Amino acid sequence: MSSTPGPAAAAPSQQISCRNCGATTDFEVTANVLRCAFCGSEQVVAQPSDPNRPTPESILSFVIEEEQARAAYREWLGNGFFRPGDLTKSASLREIRAVFLPFWAFDARANTQWTAMSGRHRTSVRQVQTVVNGQSVLRDQQVQETDWFPASGDHVGQYTWELVSASKGLEQAWVDAIEPFNFGELRAYDGKFLLGRGAEEAALDRAQAEDVARKLIEAKEQSECARLVPGDTHRDLRVSTALEDVAAKMIFLPVWLAAFAYKQKVYRFVVNGQTGKVTGEAPMSYLKVALVVGAVALVVLLIIAIVAMLK
Fold it and tell me: Is 9 contained in some domain?
């Protein structure tokens, strides 16, 4: 992966900043932008585009068209047992818009040293006192015990296309939910790809994004090292990770953003503009939740009563 800046492109002619969620998005001057594409808020302010904003090196084109995104929205809205029964009929689609989101894509080699206490289980038998037919008796009972011993090792991880969201309007978790993207379809950035689309301004520079990438990689290394500890269980796992050959570039990824209203509250919905994978937030029917919780509680009480009768 190259970290060399890509070709510059002409700045879009109009920039919209949302007072509600803080996202800043570029649009064509002819676009009728009344609401924020990220949160649906109408608290938007037009301002001049920033000519010094980071320019992406590469871009993924939209494959999913608007009608396909709308169909995905309708299908997703009708799914989910805990959603209100009138959601499909009562929800009002306020906005659906194609937007390119800014990301920093990192490559890095991680060298990790780890130490831990490794545990091996063994079974022993001990006598316990219990009451049978009103009589106090001793019975053998198998118990699990754990022997602990120190362990250590190392792990080398090669990370490619580790994505860090530079979007202010859409959190990392939302994008994680609609991955993966096919990076084999990346093209060199050209401003012509933005015609008819929005493009969010990056909220993180490279140094800030690298701090996030480092934490993401360290968390993955923690999980990898946990799998390397021998034995049946472990505790006190400590890892130390150093990154080498770190490379980064900014890319634009395509998403459809939708905002819909239900009972005077706005919810968001996101479609991967390349694959059609979807995620979103939706209201819950608290009556359905209460019924399920009550049914589970009833089953638990019945099991307890049956066990008590069999003693």
Answer: no
